[in-house]
Amino acid sequence: MALPDSVTTCLSQPVHYSICKLGFEETDTYDINNILSGNGEVCWQAVTEHVCYLESDQSVDYIRSIRSLGPVCESVHLYFKSLPKEQFVVQYASWFHWTNCTEVFLEVFDVVLQYTQATEVALGLMKLTSCLERALGDVYLLKGNDCPFLLRDLLASEQLADVFGQAVMNVLRVFIGSPHGLNLRNVLWHGFASPQEIPDKYCAMLLFLTAGLGQLLQAYLLQTKCVLVHRPYTIFISLEELDAFPLDNEILSVAEELVKQSSFVLKIMLPFWIAALTAFKQGRYADSVILLLPQLEVGLRLLFTTSNKCPNRLLTAESSALYTTFDEMLAKHLNNEEVNHLPIVLEEPAMASDFLWDFLNHQEGPRIRDRLSHGEINLETFPREIANQIVGFAITILCRFSDEDMFSLKEHMVIKPLVSCASCYRSRFHPISRLKKQVLECTKSIHLWPELPTVPEEQVQKIKGLEGNAEADTLILMISEIISQLQHYMPQNYYKSDDPINSVLTERLLVELCDTRICTLYSPRPVLEVVVVLRRISAQCHQVSQQVIAGAGLRYTQWVNKTLRSRQRHNYRRMLNSIKFLSPVLRLILLLITLELVSVHSVCKKNPFDYQQYLKFLKLVLQYTENLVTYTSPEKNKWDETMELTKRTLIKLRKISDRKLMLMHLAT
């Protein structure tokens, strides 16, 4: 697909005018002393006087306000450039403490002072706005409960107006938070502005305003005796799950050439790509990702608008419309219900879309763009593992939209492992993928049961009234029969056993089934509803396993130390007896879950009645596992009830199996 190579701006004409020209129309020199006291404090009244209002409804007149504030921004910019770094730190550093990101704001001052590259101004503004938004949210929580997710709602809130004053909030809304104003945060984070299109004086002004907010907040806290509490940052766990793309210096060197050749990169945005790769090589992982995410968005937007024949949507939307963002570009259909052609253009739609959904959208994924842009991540400790994957994915996209004939044989060999990994990518954070992970983790937990310390059988047998375990043997036989029936319904080429109760063989089967590739892209609602129930069942099974492990260990220690009373010894014997059938019954349920998952998309073919009957069956299993959690908890220890509950449930499962209503693919 041919992509346009003559794009000179991604800003619509009105937005370009507002950002690049409007604030420069008034050329009068503004005296910095009008808005700055002798000790460096912001004179807010003088600043707010430059915000203009419409006569009709007294709402902010953004056009006139931007024009009026232009000379003020220029004056602040020149003032900051005249300050030595040491003086700035002494005079202003304490006013940034309320943001919990003082170092970030001091770095932004370096950008204002030195101004070596235009990309640094954009990067500084993106970091500044995200940190400022997070800090304002912390202030909001002094007065409210649930902090608004969107910056524009935050700045329009009564809570912040009570702390800072409505006039001060209106000043901020001229620069960020309103689509009618400069809207610098959104224009940058969504990849619309090229490096040369963001005046550095706006970066200086927001730095100045942030210090001024710190001064106002300090006065408010002293007056109200309140304490500002900062919400904790998001901490990423299980980073090994994110390991998808191998990166080394050779690949990065090839990437530096790719960005100059790939049609995915708009020429006006090339400096951002180079800066992102440079930042990664320098170990500035947060900077690298902050620079790269908007470029991935604008590159995909270029593909989206070209493939769906809506070139006008490459530009920033006006205040009356929505931007074309990741959410829409990754959707199955356009707003007019027509098919979105972007996945087709990507050729590996599952790989590209699954990766983007994993890292940007899925609730249990890292949601990198949201968390970075809203200030939820500590920039100083940003994980290399996440940056590695974003950069690796970006390089694969560059390859896809580059002329292969321009690659040397060596470059082909260097990049080949990365491309191979991309083609094999499977979603890690879709609910279906998370269910597979849950099943395997629960299987590992149950695998530990045979290693649990137990009292020798001859000692246990001496407890009067508990001789024999015929009931447990009966339950195990029932489980074996049901698993044998299930084997007839398993997909072809999967392992089948003559010994269905064998734990090792069952675990092997579960691993094979969980390795089955299941479509996760654009899962229909019925599929997701079923997966939610299956995940709840799996979670309950895992909790039962953990409770059994903990309980068995505790009771064994008490037995050895002879601290169990007579009733507790009887209960311990019942526990040991129950463990014999609980292990296979949990593996049976995991097998059921996994078989249902493998054929989960067939649920869409069911008529409404059959679908409701199917959900009723799943909820029966869920109710059993929930009761099992209760009975096996350390507070209850109801092992006789556990046995009776299991017996009733197995009888129902066997009946359902006999009627062939248990597995979804039987209805297809």
Structural key phrases:
single chain, 3 domains, 668 residues, disordered C terminus, mainly alpha, ERMARD
How would you describe this structure to a colleague?
The structure is a single chain. The protein has 668 residues and is an all-alpha fold. It has three domains: 13-224, no CATH class; 239-424, no CATH class; 432-666, no CATH class. The protein is 60% helix and 0% strand. The chain is built from 28 helices and no strands. It has helices at residues 13-20, 44-48, 62-82, 85-92, 102-114, 118-140, 151-155, 158-164, 166-175, 184-189, 200-224, 249-261, 270-281, 285-307, 326-329, 342-346, 349-361, 368-373, 384-400, 409-423, 431-447, 457-460, 470-487, 503-514, 525-560, 566-598, 608-631, 639-658. α5 (102-114) runs antiparallel to α6 (118-140) and α24 packs parallel to α26. The model is unreliable at 661-668 (pLDDT under 50).
Short description:
This is EMARD protein. The chain has 668 residues and is mostly helical. The chain has helices spanning 13-20, 44-48, 62-82, 85-92, 102-114, 118-140, 151-155, 158-164, 166-175, 184-189, 200-224, 249-261, 270-281, 285-307, 326-329, 342-346, 349-361, 368-373, 384-400, 409-423, 431-447, 457-460, 470-487, 503-514, 525-560, 566-598, 608-631, 639-658.
